[in-house]
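Morning, I've got a small favour to ask if you have a moment. It would help a lot if you went through both lines with me. Thanks so much in advance, here it is.

***
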Amino acid sequence: MLTRIIDVLNSNAMGALIGIASLAAPAVAWAVDHVNLKLIVILQTVLILILLAGRLWSAKTHIRLRRTNSIEAMDEPSYYDAIRSALETSLASAYRRIADGYLSIHGAEVPRTSVMLIDALVETGIQPQRILAVDRTTNPSLLTQRREYLDANRRFLAADGRINRLFVVRREHLVDRDFARDLLALINQHRQLGVICGLAVREHLRHEETVDTVVFAHAAVLIEDEQGDAAYTEGRSTVLFKGIDTYVGHFTRAWEHGMGAPNALRTYENTFSRLLESWDPQEAAATVDGL
């Protein structure tokens, strides 16, 4: 409500109305007898202060972008103006979302934003220097190709940051021999970076604990709404900058579920490293069901 009132007071229409009122007040005072000139001066002063306050508020809360000097200079002015208007509308909408504390990102923007969020932790030095990640793993080999993201992880860990990564996997995948081989390779890759890894069976967790998320300290959370392909031409995510404790809680409960994510991973690794040499479907199923 307050934001709407401020927007109205700061609108061009209100500015024009205040300007007209400021000019009209002396004219009314001159035309009407027995008008208190002191009151008119006070009214003018108040109107001017309101107008000035609106302009100062605008400068503080709005981003000013340069507009084209001459639309007529374009080869097809009407086409250019249509595209310009569409882009400006899209940009304004994106900035409104950022101002409200969230951001929607798509395709190739997702990995770039992920890297930016990690690097910002180091640059700002906010505490705790910690990342809590839930990886809803459906294709382990795909995750090994996120080189820029992995490099950002490496930089963060080298700067004394800490990363806890929970791999959440469906039971049917965990008992698959080929999947298990790729998953163990992925976990080994992250562990070599210095990531603290854990494992959970997706069917054993609550729905909200299986959401693909990355929590950056207590500052932001990236929620993967749609997993990207290998080249990340697809994919959709949301970044939230408030309500972070809710997602910290989801991660903590999932990490501590059952025997605990690190212990579950240790049990899985010990058994499946051996089973990959001599596969036993029954032992594989029994191990996963016991996690």
